[in-house]
Automatic annotation (TrEMBL):
Residues 181-332 form the DAGKc domain. It comes from Salmo salar. It comes from the Eukaryota. Keywords: Kinase, Transferase. This is Ceramide kinase isoform X1. Pfam families: CERK_C, DAGK_cat, PH_CERK. The lineage of its organism: Eukaryota, Metazoa, Chordata, Craniata, Vertebrata. GO terms for biological process: ceramide metabolic process.
Length: 600
């Protein structure tokens, strides 16, 4: 392989040791020069926070916190990450370090005499270096911390000559300017009432300083009511002047961004959203999420953690993660878009009940979850779906959708070529039929879930469908048939353990491109009337089925945390319709001779 040309290489002083520092097109590296006289003065040095005297303490605090987290959560995956990190820590011992240019956040000159950086921040300078090496510059870069967290780290290099210092700063700035995927101007919406109502504080204290450091300018709107962000994006915002839009809030706020941006894009391109068959036009602007909500499921599944600083850094480096979006229609009328969960039965009932308990905060989901579990309602209806048979991957795969996912890339290309739909038959399933490539299943269901991505979240770190993909153009349709409470509990519990939640006789899962659901007792427009007249229908069903456990005729659809007004819906997946400022979950180092607990 051809070696990258060196743009710059010099001997610079770093923490009172001489370092060979070099910058090529992809990497900034610094390596301690192994001479006897290498140290101007003593002091420990390690590869993480090379610039600050607080580094060793920070590293120890980090190790302590990680041990605590591991002890509490028994999270084997992070234990392996911890061990490999420790190995790296011990073996590298501060002699050399490399940072990808794409992960440099900023560079600034340091006014050594005054001890002030050119962004106005103050820093204590070591005495020896100011005398011998009077010029300095600081590079801020992304450093990986525990469990997918990213942090901003600084390294300060000292130079003998001012011209050399300026040359370094200028060259690094040129390199950063050449990174065209980085946003320069962003439109930010803050929901002051999301999650624990900390949105504004999180943005001001944790995110805004990082955007300033990276020279990103922003227009900030603090929302005044629900759907403020959606409507502003859809009709008013002058989107041409921005490189992306950012929301500070939870999944509900993200859903507003998706609706605003997707609707705007379709309107600008003359596409009718009410037609279920219409091919939607992908949005060009990327969406950033600064997590400040109750569930933060989208953030968790696209970044690996719901951490505001990590998300801000992914925005700054200009990451891009395409994502599938489901459109939901009822009788040729557009209802909503979904990016995570469409759930009828259990998750619909949990949401409907939890809406009445908003005052409980995030705990309302657990309360309503427990109540819904005890209620144990099942719902009758017909599910028809178009299996995605011509793609790579199945919902039972052991592999996971991770940064640079091959399956998403491959299937994304396939979809852009409009692959033909393939018809298959499966004679083993007695209550299903095939009609023009569609499979039809009638039954009694405790839950019908469509997961367009894993739906990993703190409640279930592997998610509702652990092998689902962010951008493969499919959704995983999970059908949980009527079963005993005990079996349903076993199924639910498996979402929190290594065991396969689909490996149960009453559960089936299909990777699909489109699906429809029709509840048994309503096949027409009069559905809403029937719903309002629910009591009469309920007793009717009970008379028809004396042995039934008095289940109502309808549940509601939970569409990314919003209740849909209809039970009969038609859903289509739009491959890679939107893009996020994210890169998917990064793999963490795992020792090869040990079993990988995530892969069970
Ligand atoms: C025994 C423990 C079993 C735990 C099983 C946990 C599975 C949890 C799976 C969560 C999937 C979340 C999908 C994300 C959906 C988001 O687009 C949406 C918007 O934020 N969130 C919700 O709708 C919010 C939905 C929140 C749903 C919470 C469900 C909690 C179930 C608790 C069941 C307790 C049974 C206890 C029996 C003794
Ligand atoms: N200023 C506002 N006042 C009231 N509601 C708002 C405001 N701005 C946004 N919202 C709405 O608040 C809802 C919840 O917001 P968000 O997703 O940020 O927080 P959350 O705590 O995660 O909520 P949830 O778990 O219900 O999604 C969103 O659906 C959004 O439409
Ligand atoms: Ca998908």
């Amino acid at each position: 392989m051809e070696k990258q040309p060196r743009l710059l290489a010099s001997q610079l002083l770093l923490k009172n040791s001489l370092f060979e520092v070099s910058l090529n097109r992809v990497l900034l590296t610094w390596k301690e020069i192994p001479t006897k006289k290498k140290r101007v003065s003593g002091g420990i040095h390690h590869p993480f926070k090379v610039a600050g005297p607080r580094s060793a303490t920070a590293a120890l605090a980090w190790i302590a916190s990680l041990c605590r987290v591991n002890w509490m959560a028994h999270n084997l995956a992070s234990e392996f990450f911890f061990m490999s990190w420790l190995t790296f820590f011990i073996t590298s011992q501060g002699t050399s370090h490399g940072v990808s240019v794409s992960e440099i956040l900023a560079v600034r000159e340091l006014d050594v005499d005054s001890g002030r950086k050119d962004d106005g921040r103050w820093q204590k300078m070591p005495q020896k270096s100011t005398e011998a090496y009077p010029y300095a510059f600081t590079v801020s870069y992304v450093e990986r911390a525990w469990q997918h967290r990213w942090r901003c780290s600084d390294v300060t290099f000292h130079c003998l000559e001012g011209a050399l210092c300026q040359q370094w700063v200028q060259t690094i700035r040129e390199q950063l300017t050449a990174l065209t995927s980085r946003p320069k101007h962003l439109l930010v919406y803050i929901n002051p009432y999301g999650g624990k109502q900390q949105g504004e504080r999180i943005y001001e204290q944790k995110v805004a300083p990082l955007f300033t450091l990276a020279s990103i300018s922003t227009d900030v709107i603090v929302t005044e009511h629900a759907n403020h962000a959606r409507d502003h994006l859809r009709t008013e915002a002058e989107l041409k002047q921005y490189d992306g839009v950012v929301c500070v809030g939870g999944d509900g706020m993200f859903s507003e961004m998706v609706h605003g941006l997707v609707s705007r894009t379709q309107r600008d391109n003359g596409v009718d959203q009410n037609s279920p068959e219409e091919k939607l036009v992908p949005c060009t602007l990327r969406i950033g999420i600064i997590p400040a909500g109750s569930t933060d499921c989208i953030c968790y599944a696209t970044v690996g953690i719901n951490d505001p600083v990590t998300s801000a850094l992914h925005i700054i480096v200009g990451d891009a993660q395409p994502m599938d979006v489901c459109s939901v229609h009822h009788n040729n009328t557009f209802l909503r878009y979904s990016v995570s969960l469409l759930g009828y039965g259990f998750y619909g009932d949990v949401l409907a009940d939890s809406e009445r308990k908003r005052w409980m905060g995030p705990a309302r989901y657990d309360f309503s979850g427990f109540k819904t579990f005890l209620t144990h309602h099942y719902y009758e209806g017909t599910v028809s779906f178009l299996p995605a048979t011509d793609i790579l991957g199945t919902p039972r795969d052991k592999t996971r959708c991770r940064a640079g996912c091959f399956i998403c890339q491959h299937n994304g290309q396939l979809y852009s070529e409009d692959a033909p739909e393939i018809c298959e038959t499966d004679p083993d399933v007695s209550d299903s039929e095939y009609k023009g490539g569609w499979r039809v299943i009638r039954g009694k269901f405790l839950a019908i879930n469509a997961a367009s991505m894993s739906c990993a979240c703190p409640r279930s770190p592997k998610g509702l469908s652990p092998a689902a993909h962010l951008a493969d153009g499919t959704t995983d349709l999970i059908l949980v048939r009527k079963c005993s409470r005990f079996n349903f509990l076993r199924h639910l519990l498996r979402h929190t353990s290594k065991y396969d939640q689909f490996d149960m006789t009453f559960v089936e899962v299909h990777r699909v491109r489109r699906f429809r659901f029709t509840p048994r007792y309503c096949q027409s427009d009069s559905e809403l009337d029937l719903r309002e007249n629910g009591k009469r229908l309920f007793s009717q069903i009970c008379r028809d089925h004396p042995a039934c456990s008095c289940s109502p005729a309808y549940s509601s659809w939970n569409c990314d945390g919003e209740i849909l007004p209809h039970a009969a819906i038609e859903v289509g997946v739009h491959c890679q319709l939107i893009k996020l400022f994210a890169r998917g979950i990064e793999e963490q180092p795992v020792f090869e001779d040990l079993p990988n607990p995530c892969a069970v």
